[in-house]
Amino acid sequence: MLPWIRAPRPPRARRTLAALLLAVAAVVTPTAAAAAAPAATATASRGWNDYSCKPSAAHPRPVVLVHGTFGNSVDNWLVLAPYLVNRGYCVYSLDYGQLPGVPVFNGLGPIDRSAGQLAAFVDKVLASTGAAKADIVGHSQGGMMPNYYLKFLGGAAKVNAMIGLAPDNHGTTLLGLTKLLPYFPGAEYLLNAATPGLADQVAGSPFITKLNSLPDTVPGVHYTVIATRYDEVVTPYRTQFLDGPDVRNVLLQDLCPVDLSEHVAIGTIDRVAYHEVANALDPAHASPTDCASVIG
């Protein structure tokens, strides 16, 4: 370009809208920044997704891991999956919510369709293992989306426990950013068109409204929610908690006050949270969870 010729600048509203959407993406997608290189995703997971695995008498149900927004079946579970395999569980993880032309980063498609993918995957796991029910552990969107499966797609008959790590069960305000969307013409349309899986998670969205049109829980499923007060993605963090007769809501800092894990860490590396997951999967042999739970 010749030095005296300047490209036209986009209108202020368009620039501001772009900045807003970038800010929303930056807050919602820390998993992408924290994820391993794409090459790691191409590497077969070790120790889990083993369809020859048969559940033991001690751990009779397979565990299905459900990644978060911008996650995938490997990167989200590089720590938790081996942690559970080493404890004798048959562990499986799926990819869901893929968008055409977007590799590696999943969980971006419409969440009701993602729940259908989960339903098919659970059926596959149950058929492989011969188990009557599975336990589900999910992070972020992956801790909320299965509730749609449980409520609307018949999943309650096939799931024993639903364990959510920082799940956006009632949507999120993204630290208030979502409240700014109506002030920018076209922002909501662009968010819905480009990344419907993100738009569905906004507090008050049609998806969240439908999800919460029924009670938080369904009979027969044991629920555990593990949250951190330092969550910068699912806000306010207490909206993650569920109401129901068979629910245990856990705040990470009540177990270990010095644990500073935020939204990504609680789902991808936090051993205190993982100890609580192990307790929820096997409550008959639960042990106290505290700062020392990182050992073992």
Give the overall pLDDT as a whole number: 85
- One letter per element, helices H and strands E, the order comes to HHHEHEHEHEHHHEEHHH
Strand residue content: 5-15%
Oligomer: single chain
For the largest sheet, list the strands in their spatial order. Answer: 2-1-3-4-5-6
Question: Which spans have pLDDT < 50 for at least 5 consecutive residues?
Answer: 1-44
Biggest sheet record: 6 strands, parallel
The number of helices is: 12
Shape: globular
Number of strands: 6
Rg over CA atoms: 20 Å
Task: Name the structural class.
Answer: alpha/beta
Q: Give the termini distance in whole angstroms.
A: 61 Å
Helix content: 25-40%
Characterise the protein shown here:
It is a single chain. This protein has 296 residues and is of the alpha/beta class. The protein has twelve helices and six strands. The chain has a six-stranded parallel sheet, sandwiched between helices. It is globular and about 45 Å long.
Key attributes of the depicted protein:
single chain, alpha/beta, 6 strands, disordered N terminus
Summarize the structure.
The protein is α/β, with parallel strands linked by helices. Helices cover 35% and strands 11% of the residues.
What is the fold's blueprint, element by element?
Layout: H1 12-28, H2 30-34, H3 38-42, E1 63-66, H4 80-85, E2 91-94, H5 111-129, E3 134-139, H6 141-152, E4 159-165, H7 187-194, H8 196-199, H9 206-211, E5 222-227, E6 247-251, H10 252-255, H11 263-268, H12 271-281
Parallel strand pairs: 1-2, 1-3, 3-4, 4-5, 5-6
